[in-house]
Design a protein that fits this description.
The protein has 71 residues and is of the alpha+beta class. The protein has three helices and four strands; from the N terminus they run βαββαβα.
């Protein structure tokens, strides 16, 4: 998961939504704890100002996985 710099207003919505507790909000910093993240995308959908986005390399990885599973 990528975080678009200087966009977050630290509302904390994504922290409450993440089922894996993979988002850390400390004062004026938001951080994804990558080893905990399952790429469920709940944080992407819930952020009101679209701060969180899928990493491009992750999208490629997921596409490959889907293709391999459909063969
Ligand atoms: S993609 Fe899912 S697991 Fe990862 S940080 Fe967002 S809500 Fe949490
Ligand atoms: S929901 Fe969006 S704006 Fe709110 S803390 Fe999370 S990333 Fe920042």
């Amino acid at each position: 998961m990528d975080i678009i710099p200087n966009k977050c207003d630290f509302c904390g919505v994504c922290v409450g939504v993440c089922p894996e507790d993979a988002i850390e909000l400390k004062e004026a910093e938001i951080k994804i704890i990558e080893p905990l993240c399952t790429n469920c995308a709940k944080c992407v959908w819930c952020c009101p100002i679209e701060v969180l986005v899928f990493r491009k390399d992750k999208i490629q990885e997921l596409k490959k996985e889907v293709l391999n599973n459909s063969i």
